[in-house]
């Protein structure tokens, strides 16, 4: 099923509803620009915000959430908030502590989704057991991972009790990760895209421009619509109000099968971020 509007959700394997579309805040520094972006997104109908400990902006995100909830006249329960535990904190006790730090900075009593940010070998299984504890305690509504390949997921599921509900990975027309997506789908793990616009590198792509012109949309809107029609949750980053509004204006058109195939054909297995099997943080 493709999302029909900005508040539309998909149901995760544990029954929790997660919005198909949200705001990402990667590399947005603490300050008024961040607070305004989060508040503006919520005011314009966004119901999902994605941050991480390593972004060092959870306090600003929290302030933006509080201002946004008030401005939009909605409750905390109406919003889906995600954060992630960083590599240096991957251990049982250290992950529990990192979670407490994140919710404290955000000014929240719970998170809707908590992710292991990267699959650091020898550490992520122990960290996952901490996420299972938080989940069982009701401190987080859903738990998942980020940047996990199939072999990481297999090891995790073999050695732990609860299956990840989400896998957030780099995903865009140059990196479609079809095999990983199919594996996640077969195992009830929701696929989510970070860097859906390839950090802006796709915005002058000729093939995409042709499709955009046909639909009277921007290239960014075409890519984000492609995400949703592929069953992938997407969280584009922007701090500008007009772009926040534009990114979300993707529910009034549909890409044809031919459009989808043309976009799929752009895949080159090309990353803007590190390969999870070959990174050093």
How do you describe this structure in short?
One of its GO terms (molecular function) is oxidoreductase activity. By secondary structure, this protein is an alpha/beta fold. It contains 10 helices and 10 strands.
What does this structure look like?
The chain has 281 residues and is an alpha/beta fold. The protein has one domain: Alpha-Beta Barrel (TIM Barrel). Helices cover 40% and strands 15% of the residues. The chain has ten helices and ten strands. The strands form two sheets. Strands 3-4-5-6-7-8-9-10 form an eight-stranded parallel beta sheet. Strand 4, helix 2 and strand 5 (80-85) form a beta-alpha-beta unit. The radius of gyration is 18 Å and the shape is globular. The mean pLDDT is 97. One of its GO terms (molecular function) is oxidoreductase activity. The record marks 84 as: Lowers pKa of active site Tyr. Residues 32-267 form the NADP-dependent oxidoreductase domain.
Q: What's the structural blueprint in terms of helices and strands?
A:
Elements: E1 9-11, E2 17-19, E3 23-24, H1 32-43, E4 48-50, H2 58-72, E5 80-85, H3 92-106, E6 111-116, H4 124-136, E7 140-146, H5 150-159, E8 166-170, H6 178-186, E9 190-194, H7 206-215, H8 219-229, E10 233-234, H9 241-248, H10 257-264
Parallel strand pairs: 3-4, 4-5, 5-6, 6-7, 7-8, 8-9, 9-10
Antiparallel strand pairs: 1-2
Helix pairs in contact: 1-2, 2-3, 3-4, 7-8
């Amino acid at each position: 099923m493709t999302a029909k509007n900005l508040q539309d959700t998909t149901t995760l394997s544990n029954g929790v509803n997660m919005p198909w579309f949200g705001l990402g805040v990667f590399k947005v520094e603490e300050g008024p620009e961040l607070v305004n972006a989060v508040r503006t997104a919520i005011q314009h109908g966004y119901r999902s915000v994605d941050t991480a400990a390593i972004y060092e902006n959870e306090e600003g995100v929290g302030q933006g959430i509080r201002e946004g909830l008030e401005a939009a006249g909605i409750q905390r329960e109406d919003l889906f908030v995600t954060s992630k535990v960083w590599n240096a904190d991957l251990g049982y006790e250290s992950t529990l502590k990192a979670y407490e730090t994140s919710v404290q900075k955000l000014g929240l009593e719970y998170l809707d989704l908590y992710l292991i940010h990267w699959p650091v070998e020898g550490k992520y299984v122990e960290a996952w057991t901490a996420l299972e504890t938080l989940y069982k305690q009701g401190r987080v509504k859903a738990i998942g991972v980020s940047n996990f390949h199939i072999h990481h997921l297999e090891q995790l599921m073999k050695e732990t009790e609860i299956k990840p509900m989400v896998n957030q990975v780099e995903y865009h027309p140059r990196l479609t990760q079809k095999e990983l997506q199919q594996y996640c789908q077969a195992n009830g793990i929701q696929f989510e895209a970070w860097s859906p616009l390839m950090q802006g590198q796709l915005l002058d792509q000729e093939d995409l421009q042709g499709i955009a012109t046909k639909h009277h949309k921007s290239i960014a809107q075409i890519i984000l619509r492609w995400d949703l029609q592929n069953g992938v949750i997407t969280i584009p980053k922007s701090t500008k109000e007009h772009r926040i509004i534009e990114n979300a204006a993707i529910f009034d058109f549909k890409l044809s099968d031919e459009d989808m195939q043309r976009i799929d054909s752009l895949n080159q297995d090309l990353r803007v971020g590190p390969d999870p099997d070959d990174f050093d943080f």
